[in-house]
Structure formats: C-alpha cells, structure tokens
Amino acid sequence: MGWRDYRLGFIGASRRHRFAEPSTVSGWNRVLAPGFKFFIHPEAPLHRIEDAEGRVLLVIGDVLVAHGRHQLDELLIRVAAGEREPLDDLSGRFALAVLDGDEGRIMHDPLGSQALFRTLGPEPVVSSHSSLIAACDGLAVSPRLTRYMATDEYRARTTRFLPGDLSLYEEIVHLVPNNELDLRTGRTHRYWPRESIPPSSFEDLVEVWDGYFQAYAGFLQRHYRPVIGLTGGLDSRAVIATLHSMGVDAHYITWDKMPEDEAVRIPRLAGHLGGRHSWVCMDERPTGTEIDEIRQAARSATGLTRGTPLLPAQIAQVVSSRDLFVKGLGGEVMRGPFNSRVKAHLPSDDHESLAYALYAGKIRLTAGAEYAKTTRAAIRGYLERANYGADLHGADAGDLIYWEQRMGTWTAIQHAEFSVVVNSHSAMNSRKLFSTAWGLPDEERFGPALLHRLIERYDSELAAL
Questions:
Q1: Can you give the residue range of the structural domain that contains 98?
Q2: Distance, CA of 267 to CA of 281 (rounded, Å)
C-alpha cells in the first residue's frame, strides 16, 4: 500500500477479531485498549486520554471546542461518563470512541463529515472507509448494488450517492449522524435531538454563529493553512466573509465548471479578498505515475462509488499536505430546503415515503419497480438503524433526513476523496448552529436571504459583489 491509501483513516475492532489481511494496515499506528484494537494512519490526528474510571477515550481526526469555555478533556470525560450534551460543544471532523473493557461506543462529529463505516451484527468492525474494512476482512463488492448503480434511474441523478446508509458492500453501512454505535452488540442509539427546538431570533443565530467561527478561526490559525473554495454561492461566501473578518488569511480556489453569470463575479470577489487565488481547470487531465496513484487511492477512499476520481489529482496541483480545505457545507441544513413545510406536497408523517421522495426526487415519478423496491428497502433499513422510531422531539423529519442521509453519506465520501491529497472540513458543523437556525420563524429561515444577511453583517462589500 502507498501512503495515500486510506490517508487520515483508521480501522478498529474487538481484540478477538482477526483481520484476514492485516498487512493492509502494516506501518500504521497501533492503539490497544483492554477489549479493542485500532490501527490509525500515521498522518491522522489522534487524541487519547483515560478517565479516573479507566475508560479510554480516542478522538481520531480534528476536534475543537466550538462553543462555551470548557476544556476539551473535560467535555470528553463527561461523554465517557454517559453524557451526550457535551458533544454539542464540539466540532471538527472526527470519530470519538469510548472504550471500557469489553464495552465500547463510537460516534462522530455533528455532520458525520468523518465517515464512520461499520459491519452489521455484533462486535462490528468500524472504519473511516468501507473499502478498508473490505480489504482487511476479504469482503467483496455487492453485485446487486453494482447493478443498482448502473440503472438509468441512478445514473440520472445529479448528485450520486447510495440511498440510506448503504455502502457498496452488503455487510457494511454508514453510522448515521446523531447516533452512536455499541461496539459489543452492534446496535445503534440516537442521542440527538434531546429536546424540542426552542424559538429563536436572527440575533440569537448571529451570537451562536459568531462564537462558533471565532473558535474555528482560532483553530485554523493554530493548526493549518486554510484553503477555501471561492464561488458565487451563498454558503461559501458566508464562510469566507466571516473568517476573513476575523483575520483568517486563506488561499482561495475556484473550479471553472460553473454558470457564466457566476464565473464573471469571481475576479471581483478575489480582488476584494486579496491573497492568493487559484483556478482549477476541470478540463485539464494531468497524467503521470503520481496522478495514477492519487486516482486509484481516491477510488478506494470513496468506496468504489465515484469511479476513479480526477478532482483530487487536479486539486493536488495547487495545494500542499499542510493545507486544510474548508468546504462551505452545512448551510443547507440551516436553511432547510428539504423541510417538510417547504415541500408541503410530500408526506411528513410517513418517514419512508418522505425519505424516498427526498432521495429520488422527480426520478421517482417514472422509476421502474425494481429501482423503487431496492431504494425503499435501503431507506427502511436506514430509518431503523438511525432510530427514527425514537422521540424526535418535534424536529422536522425532512431536516433530519437531509442532514443524516445526505450530509452523513455523500458529504462524508467527498471528504474521504479529498483526504488523499488534503485534509478537509465542513465549515458549518454544529448542532447548536443548526438548532438555533431551526428555531427561526419560517419566513426568516427558509431561502437564501438567511445566509445573505450573515454575509452583509460581516462584509457588506462582499455581499454586494
């Protein structure tokens, strides 16, 4: 294996579990606890502590305290003791394991931007990559799901990702955000939402947003050289306006595949921000041995669901391994375009039909019976494993399904794809940020005006460009 293979990744299991191909992770850092073993890529950030009761806590990836004044270890020790409220103060891109003898639980950052795959059944194997589990345990790609990806209906999707929590391996699924996994029984438990979303105002949102980004700006300045995608879109501009106002100097990158009316605005935006700006030409196809290695590593990193990606190889031409790519993701969770009140024609009380409609979109109107059957079966499994039968405390199922089915799968795979050449984060990654936005009156929350108001608050000139 090359150093790019499953870069920043990990795999863990019970110490009783024997990998069929342990050579896959030879040379990785090995972490042992009484009942568990983890193999962690040498470049992956790792934070390990032990509490007074002897429980071992592993945080794999980037983690920061995004809200409040508590110290990270204080919050982690409270999580180890069974509290889940402290998780709402954390952000980054991470997996968090609490190991207590033969008992253990694992969870991840709010959006699930750190992909967390697991095998079905008791004593699951957990990993950052589905294909890493498959490589270590000798599992084969599912012919059934391969055929599904080849259907006209799937190929007609603008944004392609498997339905529900599926991977391309029958035995492996995603852990859904807001749920934790019992590492002994293999069962999942939903820990958020814990209470009803209280009403909020735009001023409340600004307070939470400002505190969150102050903490995030400090984290970036201490640890990374930030790279941000510069587009005409509101999500990325809201992040850029906020971080720029807080003194974060970033390298801005723009893809050339965008509508012409958006592309013509980029030079003005870049000129206003100053600093370094690079264009990535999507039509250029770099070649060479290193490019082939990047593309093959990206193919495995994405669980074979995105072909042999070229984008990481293109990005590699303008970034370095010390950079961190800040993606403008999470804004749609705030703005709620999939909220059932926005899509009032869809059923809000039938979670299966709602999730199917949100996943399949207009394709469902002409889809064949086999596509509908396979997609609905995947969604039923997802809803069960994501514990939609639990008390959701009045949260809109459309909001949760968008967050947990799309952000926790498609977005997580995007991050895994980029990790081959550069670490990346979802910029808006906070339960407190989302819940405050969800408490706004509908007329303030829904639509693009919400983020535009935030841009104006931090950089009125950027808002006008």
A1: 10-190
A2: 15
- 257 pLDDT exceeds 80? no
* Res 144 pLDDT > 80: yes
**Which residues, other chains included, contact 74 with Cβ-Cβ below 8 Å and sequence gap of 6+?**
none
The position carrying tokens 């408490």 is 439
Contact at 8 Å (CB) between 213 and 242? Answer: yes
Of 212, 148, 221, 188, give the one whose Cα is nearest residue 367.
148
With respect to residue 114, please indicate whether it lies within any of the assigned structural domains: yes
Under the banding of pLDDT at 50, 70 and 90, the label for residue 366 is very high
Q: Are 175 and 106 in contact (CB under 8 A)?
A: yes
- Residue where the block lists tokens 């968090």: 96
Summarised one tens digit per residue, pLDDT across range 291-300 is 999 999 999 9
Query: Per-residue pLDDT tens for 314-338?
Result: 999 999 878 999 999 999 999 999 9
Burial call 50-81: b when 16+ CB within 10 Å, e when fewer: ebeeebbbbbbbbbbbbbeeeebeebbbbbbe
| Structure tokens given for 259 | 């509508």
pLDDT score recorded for residue 129 = 98
99: left (phi over 0), alpha (psi -120 to 50) or beta: beta
- Alpha-helical (H) ranges within 249-401 are 260-263, 266-273, 289-301, 311-315, 331-335, 351-360, 369-385, 397-401
Q: What is the number of structural domains in the chain? A: 1
| Within a domain: 79 | yes
Q: What is the CATH number of the domain that holds 144?
A: 3.60.20.10
What per-residue confidence (pLDDT) applies to 8? 97
In 305-457, at which residue ranges do the beta strands (DSSP E only) sit?
323-327, 423-426
Helical segments of 276-327, H only = 289-301, 311-315
Q: Confirm whether 221 is domain-assigned.
A: no
Decide if 16 is inside a domain.
Answer: yes
Question: Residue 288: left if φ>0, alpha if ψ -120 to 50, beta else—which one?
Answer: left
Residues 16, 3: Cα–Cα separation, whole Å: 27
Say yes or no to pLDDT of 95 above 80: yes
Q: Residue length, the chain?
A: 465
Q: How far apart are CA 328 and CA 94, in angstroms?
A: 18
